[in-house]
Write a structure and sequence with these properties.
The complex is a heterodimer. By secondary structure, chain A is mostly beta strands. Helices cover 7% and strands 46% of the residues of chain A. Chain B contains eleven helices and 23 strands. Chain B has a six-stranded mixed sheet with strand order 15-23-22-17-19-20, with helices on one face. Chain B has a five-stranded antiparallel sheet with strand order 12-11-10-7-13, with no helix packed on it. The chains are: A mainly beta, B alpha+beta.
Chain lengths: 377, 626
C-alpha cells in the first residue's frame, strides 16, 4: 500500500539538499534547548478554545474520523452543543486513539502520521483541551494502542516495536514526560503477540498485559505477575485503587465467545489472584468501574445470562432495542458513556452511536463515533 | 536513479541526515520517514495511465489473473531476460495437493480488490496522482518504494544486483514493471500466486485449498500484507463489533460512519472491497467525457443476445455509430434498452465497442456500434425470495468498479474455525518460521451443518483477444545526435542535447534509460526534479490526455506521445582528471526497435585536485577555491 509521492526533491539540485540537511541538523541540534525554554513557559499559549470559557462541569471528549484528520471535540455531559477543540491530521483512512489525562485537561493521542497504509508509523501527541495546542512527544510508536497516563498526569506510557521487520518483534515500553525530552525505556517484552499498558498501581508500578502462546499475563513493572487467561484478552480496565482488573476474554473453546472476567490485583510482589469471576453463558464486551463500587460493569449481548452482580449495573445491559458496550464512568459516577448498538447480537450488531446514560436517560452524541474520556471544566 | 549522487556523496548525505535525526532527540530511535532509506530513492519511471481506467485496468487484471496477460519470458538484445510469466496455482488440501498449473486462475475480483486497497489513492492508478487519466507521467511510487497500481515492492530493490542490474540501475524486468501497467499488474498477480503456493509447506490452508473458492484465499491475502498479529482477527486493538469486513467506503454497508479503514485487518479490507466494490466516481466520469460518450457505468463483457441498458450519459446521450470508428447514426438516452449482436471491437479512443440493436424508445430498430463504457447488463427484477433473507444483504451491483462478490468470512462461532486462531497455534506457526505449513491453523470453509459453503468469483471469463489491446505492437525510433559534446562553465552551467524517442508502432513502448557515469543526467525538458530510469512512448493511434476535462475546462488530448529526453551534466559529479566521457543507453523493453546509444563527452567543470579524487564539490555549498 502506498501514499503517492506527488513532489520529490530534485536530485540534480544536490546543493539544496545539502543546505536543507544542514539547516535541519542545526535546527534539530538546538531544538532540545528551545524545547526546554518553552517547557518553562508551559504549553498554555495565548490562544484558547471555546472550551476554555465553557461553563464548568463534566464533558465527554470525543472525535469524528474524517478522511485525513480527526475532529476532536468536547460535549457537555448534561447536554448541549459539542465544542470543537482541534483537528488532528493522519494518513487517509486512519484515526487516532485517545486517553484523557487524570486531571481531565489534556488528551493524549496515538495517531498514524507517517509511513504508508501498509507500513503505518504512529506518533504520540498531546492536545491541551483548553488552548488547543498540540505537541508531539514521541514518534515511531505502535499504531494499535492507546497511551496510558501516569496517576500524576505528568507522563505517559506507550509501546514501540523493536525491529519491526521481524515477524514478531520485541515490544518496548517507554515513559514519556509531558514536559518533553527523551523517552525513558522502562522494559522490553520479548517477542509477544501483543503487549499493552493497562495502568499504574498505587505504588507507581506499571501494570501491563502480555499476550503470547500461553495466553494473557498481567505484568508488573515488566515482570510476569499473574496469569489472566489461556486466551487472548481485551478491554482491560483497572478500578480506581488498582486493586481489581476487569477484562474480557476471547474464549475460543467450542467457538468464539467474549467472556467477562475480573481479577484481584495484589499490591505487592507475590500477590496472587484472589478471584476470577466469569459468567457461564452469554457474551460480554466492554468494562468500566463505577467510582466507589466493587463490581465492574460489562456490556452484555442480548439473550445472554441473567443479570448478576458480577457483571455490574443494569444501565449497561441489553435494551429493548439493541445493547450497550460500556466505555467509562464520569469521575463523579453519575453518567456512563457507552457505545449503543441497535442490533440483536454481537454477530449482527447493527448501527452504533455514542451515548451517555444518566438516571435512566440516554443522550446521543450525534456526529461523533470515538470516545476518549472525561474532561472537567 | 543513482547516477546523480556519487557513492561518497550518498554516504555523506546519509550521515548528515542520521546526525540530524540523532540530534533531534538523542534518546529515541527515529523511524525512517524518507523514501526507501534516504538518501536512496526509488527509480524514476514514467508510465501511461489508461484513460478508461476502470474498464481497462479491470480487463488487465482479468487477463493477468488468468495468466494470459503477457508474453512468455523473452530475452533482450543485451542478454537480459524479462520473465513476468504466470507460474500457475497449486490446488488441493494438505494431503493431496497437486502441483502448480497455469490452467488455474486467481479470482480476478480478488486482485481487483487488492489493487484498490494497495493503491490507496481512491482510484485505480498506475501513475502518480498528478498525471491525468489518459496521460503520461511519473509512475505511482510509495514512500516504501511500491511501484504502480500493484504497489510492487518485492524484487524492486535498487541497492544490489540482483534484483537491480547494478547499483542504482534497474534491471530490464524492474524497468518494465515500473513503466508498463500490464506488467505491473502481472507481477502483482505473480506475488499473490506465490503466497497461495506457499501452502501447505509454509502457510496454513483455508478450506480445501481450492483456488476457485474465494474463502480459500484467506491466508494468501493475509500473507500478501504480512502474516503478522496486527492482522489477526482477534487482535485486542481492534473492535470485535467492527463487522466481518470493511465497508470499503460504501455508505450503505455496515460499519460506515463508525469504523474506518485502519480499524480492520488487511484481509478484512480486501474482502470488504470484494463484497462492496468501490463506486465509480461520477465527477471523474463526467470530467473525462467525450461529447455523447461520457464514461461508463458497468460495461462488458457481454454475450450475443444479452439485453443491456444505456447508463451514465445523462444529460447527453450515447452515440450509436455505423462502425466503431465512424460517426453516429443515432443517439440514445439513458435507460434505452439494446440487444447485443456482436463485439467487442476496439474503436475510437481505444474504447471497446459492441454491435447493438436498439430495442426500446424512439430509435428502436437502429443497428450500430456503442461504447462499452455506457452499457450495463439489463437485470430482471429478482423473483420473490423462497428462503429467508441472507444474513448479508445483497449488494447493489450498479455503478461499481466490479461486480460484488459473495463469500463467507471465517465464522468463529464454529469450533473448528475458532480453534485455528488460538494464540498458541499462531505462535507455533510463527516460531517455526512457517516451516511445516502450520497445519494447526487450517480451518474449514465448507461446513454443511451451518450451511456454510464456498463461493466462486462470478466474473465472466476474459477474452484472450484483449491481450493484443494491452500489448499493442510498439516499436521505438529515435531522433537526435548519437554523440554529444557538452560543456560546463566555471559557474557550473551545463549545455545539453535532446533526444526524441518515438513509438512508430502502437500502444505503449516502454524503454529503459541508463548511463555509464554519475555526471550524465537524463531528464524531461522543464522537469529537473526527476532523473529518468525508464519511460514510455505512446503510439499515434492512442489519444494522450494533457488536460483532463473539468466543469470549467475542456479535455485536451493529442495523438500519441513522444518521450523527449534532455541529456545534460551535473557538474557536481565530475571527478577531476577522470571520466570525462560516457554513454547513454536507451533500450526498448518490449516490441521492436534498436538500442540507441549516445556518446557523451564534457569539457570544463571541476579542475583536477590531486590527492582528493574521491571528493565531491557541491556547487554553492563547498568549494576547492582558495
Amino acid at each position: 500500500m502506498a501514499i503517492t509521492i506527488r513532489s520529490r526533491p530534485a536530485r540534480n539540485h544536490l546543493q539544496y539538499v545539502f543546505i536543507g540537511a544542514t539547516v535541519l541538523a542545526a535546527f534539530a541540534a538546538v531544538l532540545p534547548i528551545a524545547a526546554g525554554v518553552l517547557a518553562g513557559v508551559g504549553i498554555h499559549g495565548t490562544t484558547a478554545t471555546a472550551f476554555a470559557s465553557a461553563p464548568s462541569g463534566q464533558y465527554v471528549v470525543v472525535s469524528r474520523p474524517e478522511d485525513d484528520h480527526d475532529v476532536i471535540a468536547v460535549v457537555p455531559a448534561g447536554g448541549g452543543d459539542a465544542v470543537e477543540i482541534a483537528r488532528v491530521p493522519h494518513l487517509p483512512g486512519f484515526t487516532a486513539s485517545g486517553a484523557v489525562s487524570p486531571n481531565g485537561r489534556m488528551l493524549a493521542l496515538v495517531t498514524v502520521d507517517g509511513g504508508s497504509p501498509a507500513h503505518p508509523e504512529a506518533s504520540l501527541l498531546v492536545l491541551d483541551l483548553q488552548s488547543g495546542e498540540q505537541r508531539h512527544l514521541a514518534q515511531a510508536v505502535d499504531p494499535l494502542q492507546t497511551a496510558t497516563w501516569a496517576r500524576d498526569g505528568l507522563s505517559l506510557v506507550v509501546t514501540r516495536q523493536l525491529d519491526a521487520g521481524r515477524a514478531r518483534p520485541d515490544v518496548r515500553f517507554l515513559r514519556v514526560a509531558l514536559s518533553g525530552g527523551a523517552a525513558a525505556e522502562l522494559f522490553d517484552v520479548s517477542a509477544p503477540l501483543g503487549a499493552y499498558a493497562v495502568g499504574f498501581d498505587t505504588d507507581g508500578a506499571l501494570l501491563s498485559v502480555s499476550i503470547d502462546g500461553a495466553g494473557s499475563h498481567l505484568l508488573r513493572a515488566g515482570a510476569k505477575f499473574q496469569e489472566l487467561s489461556a486466551e487472548i484478552t481485551r478491554d482491560w480496565r483497572l478500578n480506581a485503587d488498582a486493586t481489581r482488573l476487569a477484562f474480557v476474554e476471547a474464549n475460543l473453546e467450542g467457538g468464539l465467545r467474549y467472556l467477562a472476567r475480573t481479577v484481584r490485583v495484589g499490591g505487592g510482589e507475590g500477590a496472587v489472584v484472589e478471584a476470577q469471576s466469569a459468567l457461564t453463558s452469554g457474551q460480554q464486551l466492554g468494562a468500566a468501574w463505577k467510582p466507589g463500587e466493587d463490581s465492574a460493569t460489562f456490556g452484555r449481548e442480548p439473550g445472554g445470562a441473567a443479570q448478576s452482580s458480577e457483571i455490574g449495573r443494569a444501565e449497561a445491559q441489553s435494551t429493548r432495542s439493541g445493547f450497550d458496550v460500556p466505555l467509562e464512568y464520569a469521575p463523579d459516577g453519575s453518567t456512563l458513556s457507552v457505545t449503543h448498538w441497535t442490533g440483536a447480537s454481537y454477530a449482527q450488531p447493527g448501527a452504533a452511536s455514542l451515548q451517555l446514560l444518566s438516571g435512566g436517560n440516554r443522550t446521543e452524541m450525534t456526529g461523533f463515533s470515538r470516545f476518549h474520556g472525561w474532561a472537567t471544566r | 536513479m543513482g547516477h546523480t549522487l556519487g557513492r561518497a556523496g550518498r554516504w555523506t548525505l546519509l550521515a548528515m541526515i542520521l546526525l540530524a535525526g540523532a540530534a533531534w532527540n538523542p534518546g529515541e530511535g527515529r523511524a525512517d520517514h524518507l523514501a526507501c532509506h534516504a538518501p536512496f530513492r526509488g527509480f524514476d519511471f514514467d508510465t501511461y495511465e489508461l484513460e478508461d481506467y476502470i474498464t481497462g485496468y479491470g480487463q488487465a487484471i482479468e487477463l493477468a489473473a488468468a495468466g494470459k496477460a503477457i508474453p512468455p519470458a523473452y530475452t533482450l538484445p543485451g542478454g537480459e531476460t524479462i520473465d513476468v510469466t504466470y507460474q500457475g496455482l497449486e490446488s488441493g488440501a494438505r494431503a493431496g495437493r497437486t502441483s502448480a498449473s497455469t490452467a488455474r486462475a486467481i479470482p480476478p475480483s480478488l486482485y481487483k480488490a487488492i489493487a484498490w486497497v494497495e493503491s490507496a489513492a481512491g482510484a485505480w492508478g498506475n501513475a502518480s496522482g498528478s498525471v491525468p487519466f489518459g496521460g503520461v507521467g511519473a509512475t505511482l511510487l510509495s514512500t516504501d518504494c511500491g511501484y504502480g497500481i500493484g504497489q510492487i515492492t518485492s524484487g524492486m530493490g535498487h541497492a544490489s544486483a540482483p534484483p537491480a542490474l547494478e547499483y542504482g540501475v534497474p534491471s530490464a524486468r524492474q524497468a518494465i514493471i515500473g513503466t508498463h501497467p500490464l506488467f505491473n499488474i502481472a507481477e502483482g498477480v505473480r506475488i499473490l500466486a506465490d503466497k497461495w503456493n506457499g501452502a501447505p509447506n509454509f502457510r496454513p490452508i483455508a478450506g480445501n485449498g481450492d483456488p476457485r473458492a474465494l474463502e480459500d484465499w484467506y491466508y494468501a491475502v493475509w500473507s500478501y500484507n504480512g502474516f503478522a498479529f496486527s492482522n489477526h482477527p482477534l487482535n485486542p486493538g481492534r473492535n470485535p463489533l467492527r463487522g466481518d469486513v470493511w465497508h470499503c467506503n460504501d455508505k450503505t454497508a455496515p460499519g460506515f460512519g463508525t469504523f474506518v479503514r485502519s480499524d480492520y485487518t488487511y484481509q478484512e479490507l480486501v474482502y470488504g472491497c470484494l463484497r462492496y466494490p468501490p463506486a465509480k466516481p461520477v465527477a471523474v466520469a463526467s470530467a473525462q467525457a467525450l461529447p455523447g460518450e461520457s464514461l461508463a457505468a458497468v460495461g462488458g463483457p457481454f454475450a450475443v443476445g444479452d439485453l443491456v441498458v444505456v447508463t451514465g450519459t445523462a444529460p447527453e446521450c450515447l452515440k450509436i455509430r455505423a462502425t466503431p470508428t465512424t460517426d453516429q447514426v443515432a443517439c440514445v438516452t439513458d435507460g434505452t434498452q439494446l440487444e447485443i449482436l456482436g463485439g467487442p471491437q476496439v474503436g475510437l479512443g481505444l474504447n471497446s465497442f459492441w454491435n447493438v440493436k436498439v430495442t426500446s424508445g424512439t430509435k428502436k430498430g437502429t443497428v450500430g456500434w456503442a461504447a462499452d463504457a455506457f452499457l450495463a447488463k439489463y437485470v430482471a427484477p429478482p423473483p420473490p425470495p423462497v428462503i429467508p433473507p441472507p444474513t448479508i444483504p445483497p449488494v447493489t451491483p450498479a455503478n461499481r468498479y466490479w461486480a460484488p462478490q459473495a463469500f463467507v468470512i471465517p465464522d468463529f462461532g464454529e469450533a473448528s474455525v475458532a480453534a485455528a486462531f488460538t494464540p498458541q497455534h499462531f505462535l507455533d506457526c510463527q516460531d517455526g518460521g512457517f516451516s511445516g505449513g502450520c497445519p494447526s491453523m487450517d480451518f474449514p470453509t465448507t461446513i454443511p451443518s451451518r450451511g456454510v459453503i464456498t463461493h466462486p468469483d462470478t466474473t465472466p471469463a476474459v477474452s484472450p483477444g484483449l491481450i493484443s489491446k494491452f500489448l499493442g505492437d510498439p516499436k521505438l525510433q529515435y531522433s537526435g545526435p548519437s554523440s554529444l559534446a557538452l560543456s560546463v562553465t566555471s559557474s557550473g552551467a551545463a549545455t545539453n542535447g535532446t533526444i526524441t524517442v518515438k513509438n512508430v508502432g502502437t500502444w505503449i513502448a516502454p524503454f529503459r534509460v541508463r548511463t555509464t557515469a554519475d555526471w550524465i543526467v537524463v531528464q524531461h525538458p522543464g522537469d529537473s526534479t526527476r532523473t529518468l530510469d525508464g519511460s514510455v512512448a505512446v503510439g499515434a493511434e492512442t489519444e494522450v490526455v494533457t488536460q483532463q476535462a473539468t466543469a470549467t475546462r475542456p479535455r485536451i488530448a493529442h495523438k500519441g506521445n513522444d518521450s523527449v529526453l534532455l541529456i545534460t551534466v551535473n557538474p557536481a559529479f565530475l571527478t577531476a582528471g577522470v571520466g570525462r566521457s560516457g554513454k547513454v543507453y536507451i533500450e526498448p523493453l518490449l516490441g521492436g526497435g534498436n538500442v540507441f546509444v549516445i556518446d557523451v563527452t564534457v569539457a570544463g567543470g571541476a579542475p583536477p585536485t590531486p590527492g582528493l579524487s574521491h571528493r565531491n564539490v557541491v556547487p554553492n555549498v563547498a568549494s576547492d577555491a582558495p
